[in-house]
Design a protein that fits this description.
249 residues; alpha/beta; Rossmann fold; 2 domains; five-stranded parallel beta sheet; 11 helices; globular; carbohydrate derivative binding; SIS_GmhA/DiaA_subfam
Amino acid sequence: MHAWEKYFEIMKEIEADIMKTQSANIMKAATLLADVTERGGLIYAFGCGHSHLVAEDAFWRAATPCNYVALTEASAIGTFEATKSYLMENTYDLGKHIVDYHRITPADCLIIISNSGNNITPVDACLRAREKGIPTIAITAVGCANWLKTKHQAGVKLKDVADIVLDNRSLIGDAAVQIEDFPMKVGSTSTIPMIYLQNAVLIQMVEILKERNFTADVYYNGHMAFMDSQAAEHNNEMVDKYFYRIRNL
């Protein structure tokens, strides 16, 4: 078996593990997001480093809810100055300031994405949200968090302080494949299942709302909009609806 085939097999095993262990929490998270959406709230998502990719993946794109907001704090996402972002992810009060700056309210929800769940900024963001009565969902790796030591002075990890925890079942070390005579494993295991989990709850949210006779706002694919005037009109209406509520739309 080639290394890439081993990687596919390992990722399929993680996916199967998620389906077996996370069903109840997926439904809890989807129900919370349905409640938030039905009352007119926004679904905020925040992650530092590579975790921000999960937030960006669902923001202003095809087949995703229009009331979803990616909080892309430039200093912490690693897109421009990668090694500095690690320092920012471990700076006290940054998470608090992000929650406060974006005026997140208890009518909204905050999804916090962190594979280890042991760095300071994601934990601070979750703690601040709890102080303000904002419901929280963590997408994290519980096994990794248990294995690692938290950096937060409060001695807590993201999994300990979020209202709902979605476990991505990522492998310790966030690495999949051992190649013979090579010193470290290669192939990350965290991002793909986190995107799976987030899409799962967003899809399930739409179904729950449909069962409540409430139609969720969802974008069409941009190229479909280019080819179909009705799809384009729908997307334009959605942007107009949320433009002054989502500051980076």
